[in-house]
Design brief:
It comes from Sphingobacterium ginsenosidimutans. This is Aminoglycoside phosphotransferase family protein. By secondary structure, the chain is α+β, with helices and mostly antiparallel strands. It contains 13 helices and 9 strands. The strands form 3 sheets. Strands 1-2-3-5-4 form a 5-stranded antiparallel sheet, with helices on one face. The longest helix is centred in the C-terminal third of the chain and has 22 residues. It is globular, with a radius of gyration of 21 Å. About 40% of the residues are buried.
Length: about 375
């Protein structure tokens, strides 16, 4: 946010259809991709707005990104059940158009800006603390997928191609090994053996999808827990951060949520002995998710949910290790072995899941 002076941000805010004069534009939230600001106007309507600079280096197809968000939010708005005293904008992200009626605007120095209504009186958690929270997160993403299940996935643009394509990630790893620009391959042979010994299993979802056995649906693709807003009673209210909404398989969303919920330590914890799965949170999330999703998922989709839980930490480990071998040019690192430490945590998570696979599958079976 420090890259942008106040005048640039305020001028961007003035390009949107707001009631009253702008009296305050201040940094908001802790997102790592987009720069976000809270905008308050002179009209005391009880509504504030979020102004965001879209990171077009991460999301170069801004047209496609905003196209996706518009289609998805319009569809969700028709499905949401609004309680007394609430508005649709309390449960679904609402885009504020520009003065020209567009979804976003650009400034003179090439930045892209958009605006949403700020959803007030909500909270999010970076770390799941209770089974109630885990269950509500599961319900939120299950409901999100259910409400979009009748929306044609072909209408949605793939803004980040191959994002969850494990073959693509493994091909990148093999290319990195072949070049070995930093002479690091010899240091990680045990990690490579772990990865390639599980390669066939980790292609299960992709192979089934390629055969047409799994339906391609509209998925969120970034289901970390802080992308669910809860109300003051820790009940689900809204799924946010729709930048990565794309066609995909439901197990990807389930797997990424589990990856971030049941690991009790940080992603870069050096002592991997601390990685002991929180299976009660897994059970709570799965039960909440299937409470909403059970009715629209196919039997095979339900059976692949645990495969997704294995795949997502595996694939993230592949990405960290690829970056380590290539010289740490993609992920920000604080020390030479940072990406290797991250790799270790993800692969240990896979290993711990393998020890508990029977329990994980039984939870899904009991739910369905």
């Amino acid at each position: 946010m420090s890259d942008f002076n106040q005048l640039v941000v305020e001028n961007a805010a003035k390009q949107f259809t707001l009631e009253g004069d702008i009296i305050s534009v201040q940094p908001f939230g802790s997102g790592h991709i987009n720069d976000t600001y809270r905008v308050i106007t002179s009209i005391d309507s009880g509504i504030s707005h979020l102004l965001q600079r879209i990171n077009h280096h991460v999301f170069p197809n801004v047209d496609g990104l905003m196209h996706n968000i518009e289609i998805v939010t319009k569809h969700l708005s028709k499905k949401v059940k609004v309680a007394e005293g609430k508005q649709v904008s309390d449960h679904v992200l609402t885009i504020i158009p520009t003065l020209e009626g567009k979804l976003y605007t650009t400034d003179s120095i090439g930045n892209y800006w958009r605006m949403f209504i700020l959803i007030e009186d909500t909270k999010s958690y970076d770390i799941v603390e209770t089974e109630v929270q885990a269950a509500e997160g599961g319900r939120a993403f299950g409901l999100f997928q259910k409400q979009l299940s009748d929306l044609d996935a072909s209408r949605i643009v793939e803004v980040l191609p191959n994002f969850h394509n494990v073959e693509f990630r493994l091909d990148n790893l093999r290319k990195a090994i072949a070049k070995d620009v930093c002479q690091r391959v010899r240091l990680v042979q045990d990690k490579l053996d772990f990865i390639f010994n599980r390669e066939d299993r980790m292609k299960t979802i992709l192979d089934l999808g390629n055969k047409g056995a799994l339906p391609l649906r509209i998925t969120h693709n970034d289901t970390k827990f802080n992308n669910v807003l809860l109300d003051v009673h820790d009940k689900m209210q809204c799924v946010i951060d729709l930048d990565t909404v794309m066609p995909g398989y439901v197990a990807y969303d389930f797997g990424d949520a589990i990856r971030t919920i049941i690991n009790p330590v940080a992603e870069d914890e050096k002592d991997i002995s601390k990685i002991v799965l929180n299976l009660s949170l897994y059970k709570a999330y799965a039960e909440g998710y299937l409470e909403e999703a059970n009715e629209f998922l196919t039997t095979l989709e339900k059976e692949t949910l645990v495969d997704g839980a294995f795949l997502l930490p595996y694939m993230q480990g592949v990405r960290f290790l690829t970056d380590y071998i290539e010289g740490d040019h993609y992920y920000k690192t604080k020390y030479d072995e940072h990406n290797l430490v991250r790799t270790n945590t993800q692969l240990k998570l896979v290993e711990e899941m393998e020890k508990n696979e029977e329990f994980m599958r039984k939870v899904i079976f009991d739910c369905i």
